[in-house]
Amino acid sequence: MDHLDKLAETQLYSLRTLKTPGIGRTVAKVLLVIVAIFILFLFLPWQQNIRGKGKLTALNPGNRPQMVESAIAGRITEWHIIEGDYVNKGDTLLTISEIKDKYFDPNLVPRIQEQLDAKKNAADAKDKKIAALNRQIVALENAVRAKMAQTKNKLQQSKLKLEADSLAFVAEQVNYENAKSIFERNKNRFDAGNITLTKFQEIENKFQNSSAKVLKAENEWLQRKADLANATLELASVEADYSDKISKAQSNLNETIASRNETQAEISKMENELTNVQVRQSQYQIIAPQSGYVVKAVKVGLGETIKEGGAVATILPQSEDIAFEMYVKAMDMPLIAKGRKVRVEFDGWPALAFSGWPNASVGTFGGIVAIIDRVESKNGMFRIIVKPDPEDEAWPDLLRMGSAAKGWVMLNNVPIWYEIWRNMNGFPATMYKDIESEAKDLTK
User: Fold this and answer.
1) What is the end-to-end Cα distance of the chain in Å, rounded?
2) In what order do the strands lie in the sheet with 311-317?
3) Do 91 and 126 sit in the same domain of this protein?
4) Which residues of 251-277 are buried (b: 16+ CB within 10 A; e: fewer)?
5) How confident is residue 153, by pLDDT bands cut at 50, 70 and 90?
6) Is the per-residue pLDDT at 268 higher than 90?
7) Residue 402 sits in which domain range?
């Protein structure tokens, strides 16, 4: 057996007949080439991206489809347009009629105007009364000053007369005492027969005259005291009388001013009501807020009722302002910054897209991240808005608002093997510090 084991392979016929088939060698070579190509393929660059779907919109909110609403409740009486018509800003879309009984009166505006004019006339009359009362108060104040000055002068005169009469009364009392003394002395002399009867009668007459003068002076002095008291009372009476008149005039003035203010409040209220009615009547014609196409009528039937703030039609503004409203996952939001490049594929436009090789894609269009929402929009997705890239091919002119599209926010270039390894391990597409530095570069 050992001898047989040592025999050369070429000496055995059965081994010589076992040869490798030619097709096997070919398959092996092909497999080796495929493996080599695959290994080389793993080192090809791949641009990381964030995928999302959405629809077309306008970058400016004023250029997006908008609902035309009725500011008031009413009933449709006539349509002036049909769906698909182009309307200019200010064109009448439809006419409605009133449904609230408060505004049924066709002469409501002139009736309110008449009431308003009457109130204004009443206010003017009260203004004149206020002016008259002010003049009356000024006149009373001037009169009381004059009357008080006159009464004070009278009081001062009474004081001076009282003082003069008081001195005259004292002087007459002195004269009376002297006449009395002379009369008593001469009476004794007459009784002794030293003077004649005629002389004594003369002296007695002087004494009686002096006594009368004393009584007269006393009466005048008492009269002056009474005049002084009356003057003092008159001064107080004048002050009280005019104070009462001025107070009544001031009270009447205040009441008139209060009534004037109430009338002015009613005038303001009626003016507001008149303006509201006029504005409401102008709302019977629902006009286009801006130029565009009427794409949908919400309320269509004649006689159909519209609520306040109810939509009647949708207008699509005519504008070249177009953008892509794209929704991405929350986990991808930290990797997106304004200015990032985006590739967009529109529904209805044939495209062959390679997300990792944007340069090899056909039928896709370039965009730039313009807006990033700070809160989620729906189902945990965040919205970003992409505008056309001015450095890339222009977007098609026939795109329509609301058309579906999908896009890829382009990130960094990495080898394919790294991208496969990253996805297998669930690692993020790029590092946060890289995206922050790139975002700063994009904003410079």
Assistant:
1) 86
2) 66-69, 311-317, 292-297, 86-87
3) no
4) ebbeebeeebeebeeebeebeeebeeb
5) confident
6) yes
7) 2-60+319-443
